[in-house]
Amino acid sequence: MQSTMPDTRMPKRRVLVVGSGGVGTMVCVALERSGMASVTAVLRSNYEKVLQYGFEIDSIDHGKLSGWRPSSGMQNRSQ
Q: Residue 43 phi/psi, 5° resolution?
């Protein structure tokens, strides 16, 4: 039987997620909460708001998360 707990001997993976709409944000949440990854999210129009307030998330799988942020974020300036 395999354990669902992260292997603490393995270093955390560094993951870049481009786009933090509904799907991208939930990918970030799942990766961060697994304990196996440190996520950098590339944000576009909502960068300043996320930086200041974080995300407000109401998820069946993850519950209510107020002010949640990925490990780091960067702004997509190519608009």
A: -110, 150
Q: 62 near 72, Cβ under 8 Å?
A: no
Tell me if residue 66 falls in helix, strand or coil.
strand
**Bridge-partner residues for 65, per DSSP?**
57
The candidate with the shortest Cα–Cα distance to 38, out of 16, 67, 5, is 16
Q: Could you tell me the two tokens for 76?
A: 């997509």
Task: Name the residue among 69, 66, 62, 60 with its Cα closest to residue 38.
Answer: 69
Q: pLDDT, tens digit, for every residue of 31-77?
A: 999 999 999 999 888 888 888 999 999 989 888 999 998 888 888 87
